[in-house]
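Researcher: Structure for this, please.
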Amino acid sequence: MEEPKKKLNRKKRFILLMASLLVISGGFWFTSTNLYKFAKGYMLFKYQTKHPHVTKAVEVPSQKQQTEKAVLYPVQPKMGENIGELYIPKLKASLPIFHGTNEDELEKGVGHFAGSVLPGEKDNSVLSGHRDTVFRRLGEVGRGDRLIVRTTAGEFTYKVNRVRIVDADDRTVIVPKPRAVLTVSTCYPFRYIGSAPKRYILSAYLVKSKLS
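Model: Predicted structure, token format:
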């Protein structure tokens, strides 16, 4: 009578062992897959163009993103090209925008970070400028204020929803966004002598588009 019972117990243990192995194998596969995705995203983030004001991970746009871009901007601007103007109603200031954030562009006006989308497009469009020239009064702009960008594609009105002061090497300034966002960056403190250790950041979301 004991022998059949032992065989039954051994069979149960075998089934439980196999089930445990399947669960462990499945968990290992799930973990390794997500770890790969995380590592891939991290490596893309680390492989980026460096600039004293802003940086952005290099990304290959999908066919859908390329199509959306072509609707607003059939021809992509060249480095150093004037792509429009930034109007800040609160300051009653109109500032020219140039494609690129090298010193050549920043000496002439506001620089558009070439690694980000153009104004009006979905995602994070990043603008940068010197605190002692074009953005000397940017500290007066805050939540609820409007930022208007005019380009060949039309007029795009953004509303500031967040003001931040971050470290100079903070990478959250250029992270992708699920909707059209304008990020404006300059060095901080405004009256600091020398290379400023912080960045003054305005984050604004698109509230109105008037296409050309």
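Researcher: Any notable elements?
Model: The chain has two domains: 1-46, 61-211. The mean pLDDT is 81.
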